[in-house]
Task: inverse folding
């Protein structure tokens, strides 16, 4: 039992570490986006001239923020899900439905990675007009977001199993 407890603590620590890394990246991206948009707006209205890089940078930050924040939503279990079946089906079936839901999300994350890599490779040699960086950097958010999602979903599911809670109970919280 002690080994299980130790493993559970490590799983919880890994989940929290992944959450903090993802959260820090999202905070930095959102802050950068706010600063870039502020510079564009101030430049446009106060000086009648705005930097060309501001809109591209804010788009880059928004896309990366969106793809990384998906895993935060799964960690906090505040993603959108349909709960009408929870009230209609027997409680015994709900754990199976939760497992099915997690498997669908896992499959989707693998699709994000697989096809995201293809899109990155198609665009790696294209340069953005204002920032003069590879457009592949923008699209790299898709497979990276998929990796974060798989990691978070796997860690959260393992933690729930070690805590002795059914997979459905995690969604009830």
Result:
């Amino acid at each position: 039992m002690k080994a299980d407890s130790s493993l559970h603590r490590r799983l919880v620590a890994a989940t929290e570490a992944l959450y903090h890394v993802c959260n820090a990246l999202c905070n930095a991206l959102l802050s950068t986006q706010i600063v870039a948009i502020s510079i564009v707006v101030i430049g446009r209205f106060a000086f009648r001239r705005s930097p060309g890089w501001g809109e591209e940078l804010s788009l880059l930050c928004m896309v990366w923020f969106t793809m990384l924040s998906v895993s935060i939503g799964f960690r906090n279990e505040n993603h959108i899900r349909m709960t009408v079946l929870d009230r209609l089906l027997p409680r015994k079936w709900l754990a199976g439905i939760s497992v099915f839901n997690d498997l669908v999300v896992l499959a989707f994350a693998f699709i994000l990675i697989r096809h995201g890599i293809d899109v990155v490779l198609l665009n790696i040699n294209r340069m953005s007009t204002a920032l003069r960086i590879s457009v592949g950097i923008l699209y790299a958010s898709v497979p990276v977001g998929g990796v974060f999602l798989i990691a978070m979903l796997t860690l959260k599911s393992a933690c729930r199993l070690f805590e002795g809670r059914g997979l459905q109970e995690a969604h009830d919280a």
User: Anything to note?
Assistant: Residues 166-171 have pLDDT under 50 and may be disordered. DSSP finds seven helices and no strands in the chain. The two ends are 26 Å apart (CA to CA).
